């Protein structure tokens, strides 16, 4: 899942729908040019996550060991704790509360 596709999919959902809580975007530890979110307790609205993702577009993040990395619509997305490798975001799964399908790195 790329940042651009994720934004498109979020835009197609009801803004007040609840989705699992990912936040604190940063450069991903595994590939500094990718974007990572931290998974947190509870949920948030689609609108809140959508706004967070839109704020990442065009932003430059510092890599874990340095360097500047620009995030755009083609940037791959991950869920990971800061400084750790994590899982790729693959898709949004419909349900009473939206969840994210993930996959380990190949």
Could you explain how this protein is built, in words?
The protein has 106 residues and is α+β, with helices and mostly antiparallel strands. Helices cover 19% and strands 41% of the residues. A five-stranded mixed sheet has the order 1-2-5-6-7. Helix 1 packs antiparallel against helix 2. The protein starts with a helix and ends with a strand. 21% of the residues are buried.
Structure at a glance:
The protein is an alpha+beta fold and 106 residues long. 19% of the residues lie in helices and 41% in strands.
Structural key phrases:
106 residues, alpha+beta, 5-stranded mixed sheet, two-stranded antiparallel sheet, 7 strands
Topology record:
Elements: H1 3-11, E1 18-27, E2 35-45, H2 46-56, E3 60-62, E4 68-70, E5 77-79, E6 87-93, E7 99-104
Parallel strand pairs: 2-5
Antiparallel strand pairs: 1-2, 3-4, 5-6, 6-7
Helix pairs in contact: 1-2
| DSSP strand count | 7
Average predicted confidence as pLDDT: 96
- Widest sheet: strand order? 1-2-5-6-7
Largest sheet: 5 strands, mixed
Structural class: alpha+beta
Distance between the termini: 14 Å
Shape: globular
């Amino acid at each position: 899942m790329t940042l651009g596709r994720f934004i498109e999919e979020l835009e197609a959902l009801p803004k007040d729908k609840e989705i699992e809580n990912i936040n604190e975007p940063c450069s991903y530890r595994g590939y500094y040019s990718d974007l990572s979110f931290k998974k947190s307790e509870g949920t948030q609205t689609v609108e809140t996550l959508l706004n967070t993702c839109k704020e990442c577009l065009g932003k430059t993040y510092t890599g874990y060991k340095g360097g500047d990395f620009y995030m755009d619509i083609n940037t791959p997305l991950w869920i990971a704790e800061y400084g750790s490798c994590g899982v790729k975001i693959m898709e949004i799964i419909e349900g009473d509360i939206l969840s994210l399908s993930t996959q380990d790195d190949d």
